[in-house]
Amino acid sequence: MSSTDKLILENIYSTYYSGEQQLPVLNNISLNVGKGEFVSVLGPSGSGKSTILKIASGLLRPEWGRVLIDSKDITGKPQLVGYMPQQDLLFPWKTLKQNAALPLLAQRSSKKEAFTRVEELLPSFGLDGFSDYYPYQLSGGMRQRAALLRTMMIESGLMLLDEPFGALDALTREHLQDWLLEIWGRFKRSVLFVTHSIDEAIYLSDRIYVITERPGKIALEKTIELKRPRSKTVITTSLFSSYKQLLIDSLNIKSADYPGPDYQKES
Ligand SMILES: Nc1ncnc2c1ncn2[C@@H]1O[C@H](COP(=O)(O)OP(=O)(O)OP(=O)(O)O)[C@@H](O)[C@H]1O
Ligand SMILES: [Mg+2]
Questions:
Q1: pLDDT score for 261
Q2: Hey, whose CA ends up nearest to atom 31 of ligand 1?
Q3: Residue 43 CA: which ligand 1 atom is closest?
Q4: 218-223 sheet: strands from edge to edge
Q5: Can you tell me which atom of ligand 1 is nearest the CA of 194?
Q6: Which of 29, 41, 51 gets mutated to test ligand 1 (max ligand atoms within 8 A of its CB)?
Q7: For the chain, how many structural domains are there in total?
Q8: Which of 166, 185, 188, 211 is the most exposed place for a label (fewest CB within 10 A)?
Q9: Pocket test for ligand 1, best of 14, 23, 210 (most atoms within 8 A of CB)
Q10: Which atom of ligand 1 is least distant from the CA of 18?
Q11: Residue 226 is part of which domain span?
Q12: Is 25's C-beta closer than 6 angstroms to any atom of ligand 1?
């Protein structure tokens, strides 16, 4: 980890409390995203992936540990970063253009400036001509692209994407993966991308963190050395298969098998 990192999570522990019940969710998670880097977090359902993104955005304060964005400690302080939650909610009563312009308006742009900027970007997002459509008039893939466009409007340079393609059919998903890589290359953002798809993580990422089942610990950190730009033919290469096998094996390791500080720290 270094000062060239866009995002650093340091020794994060997190527990949810409801009444008497405690649910330990994250167990000593440390990770970093370099400037312009595409990093994925891969892990089973319920392992704490979405919780990692909430903490990274400052929306949730961890029990222990620090979050740094551009070397500044923002732990538990909500930031205007490009965070796209798992169930992205475009406002149904606003048009595509109005939805996408929201972050700019929050950053105090005038309506005119904001709409002009949105209109400029619509073609790159395959949404040209749809700016006055309401979300219900768009396809699932278009809604996801619109949500990504809105996320991109936040000019912090960091995008936190929580399974943005999870609900889509396989064909649309593959198409959007290529499109996302293209957009990422063009806009030079730092990305922390959550997925439970092994293939998706390898295909997109510079680096992958695998986390165990809850309470999530880091089971593996792996740099993906597939050349860019990538195309789907890379999936048939032996290097891709060897990454895949490694990730499958690491996903099978139980949280308890990992050494490291226990969740319940001595006080
Ligand atoms: N606000 C909350 N209050 C209490 N428990 C929560 C809350 N949010 C999440 N949890 C619990 O924390 C655990 C981790 O949830 P999280 O959403 O981070 O998992 P995830 O890895 O993103 O799962 P998925 O792949 O299914 O999206 C789950 O057991 C979940 O029930
Ligand atoms: Mg989740």
A1: 45
A2: 46
A3: 21
A4: 82-84, 158-162, 190-195, 38-42, 207-211, 218-223
A5: 22
A6: 51
A7: 1
A8: 188
A9: 23
A10: 4
A11: 1-81+158-165+189-261
A12: yes
pLDDT of the chain along its 267 residues, tens only?
666 899 999 999 999 998 889 999 999 999 999 999 999 999 999 999 999 999 999 999 999 999 999 999 999 999 888 999 888 779 999 999 999 999 999 888 899 999 999 999 999 888 999 999 999 999 988 998 899 899 988 888 999 999 998 878 888 889 889 989 999 998 889 999 999 899 999 999 999 999 999 999 999 999 999 999 999 999 999 999 999 999 999 998 765 554 444 444 443
Q: Is residue 117 part of a domain?
A: no
DSSP letter for each residue of 51-109 = HHHHHHTTSS--SEEEEEETTEE-TTS----EEE-SS----TTS-HHHHHHHHHHHTT-
Pairing of strands 190-195, 38-42: parallel
Residue 87 lies in a domain: no
Q: Closest-lying ligand to the alpha carbon of 41?
A: 1
Q: Tell me, what CATH number does 23's domain have?
A: 3.40.50.300
Identify the pLDDT of residue 106: 87
Residue 133 in domain: no
Is 111 a domain residue? no
Q: Whose CA is nearest to atom 28 of ligand 1?
A: 46
126 Cβ contact list (under 8 Å, min separation 6): 142, 145, 179
Which residue CA neighbors atom 30 of ligand 1 most closely? 46
